[in-house]
Design brief:
The structure is a homodimer of 199-residue chains.
Chain A lengths: L5 H11 L6 H13 L2 H17 L1 E2 L6 E2 L5 H4 L4 E8 L2 H9 L5 E5 L17 H10 L4 E4 L5 H14 L5 E4 L15 H9 L5
Parallel strand pairs in A: 3-4, 3-5, 5-6
Antiparallel strand pairs in A: 1-2
Chain lengths: 199, 199
């Protein structure tokens, strides 16, 4: 039996349904929302509805945008002949943070995962193939995560891209900058040796 | 410069303003909300507005409720002559979980904290004094947290309650059940020795 009002329980349930938020944290968040001034709580609710309503996928790269095409695809200074394929919109942010990459992106919105019933038709692979077929693309960089599913997705897509005679590359594996050999795992260290470059 | 649409940034800001949610987690939560079906996102927003609108403080004990008085104060089986004073509504839940306590509560909605500019008038102390003065109360159990601020609040209130000739008690300090002496801190261990009981 719960000693909280139904509408509070309902709010706790909503927070608890978010990823990485347990029951206790959800309670804390719900109490916090109740302690907010009315206007702030309403603007929180409005932000949810508003973001949900106005954000959709860029027609070109499938990244999230409010317009027809995203800022990166609309930019005239970016190299449109290079496409970096990532699994999630937040990965775009990570790569942009480096300020090195000047090409465009393609966001898959997921990775192939037979365990979670995610097949090739559930992520934006078709859109990538159409894009490569219809445009003058020179290189596709596979930048999915270096885990089993990201790896399998990269392999799968690179095979589909074979007929288009486009250069398909993968992010380099190796020891992270600033880290310590002692703490690198075996797989990473082996890949770092395999991928060694001349100085 | 951000590469996300403004309405998404706004939602990330809202999540990041919640307690214990950093920028990265806020992004994850915002992306999750965007991935929800429209109806679910709207019901999340509605739950916030609804909880904020219908939840308020019980007239008697200041616990959160949707009605005039809360379920515990409305119950006919609870002992109305005992009041357990806690700082937050969630503390009521913690004590109820034990299924031992059968009295009523008083929720302060905070603790005295000069550092955060929380004074006696900012928490529900006056309501407690009025309640003790106007009702036949036998015992007030101070159950604020055993930290500096909770301690100071308990001391302050117990002094205010002196004139009412009501029994004022404090939760027992000691080693937690099922724990290990080796890991108990000095202060707890000293309190456990001080508060030793005959077997």
């Amino acid at each position: 039996m719960s000693f909280f009002p139904a509408s509070l329980e309902e709010l706790v349930d909503k927070f608890a349904a978010l990823p990485g938020i347990g029951r206790k944290s959800a309670q804390r968040l719900a109490f916090h929302v109740l302690s907010l001034p009315d206007a702030e709580a309403e603007s929180f609710a409005a932000a949810i509805v508003n973001a949900k309503k106005s954000v959709h996928c860029c027609k070109v790269c499938q990244n999230l945008t409010e317009g027809d095409i995203c800022r990166i695809c609309a930019s005239t200074t970016r190299d449109k002949s290079t496409i970096c394929v990532v699994s999630e919109p937040r990965d775009v942010l990570s790569i942009e943070r480096g300020r090195e990459y000047n090409g465009t992106y393609h966001v898959l919105h997921g990775v192939l995962s037979p365990m979670s019933h995610v097949g090739p038709d559930d992520i934006k692979i078709k859109e990538l193939l159409v894009r490569v077929a219809e445009n003058d693309i020179e290189e596709v960089i596979m930048a999915t995560n270096p885990d089993t599913e990201g790896e399998a997705t990269a392999m799968y897509i690179s095979r589909l891209l074979k007929p288009f005679s486009v250069k398909v590359t993968r992010l380099a594996y190796g020891i992270p900058v600033g880290s310590n050999l002692e703490f690198a795992d075996d797989a990473t260290l082996n890949r770092a040796i395999e991928g060694r470059t001349e100085m």
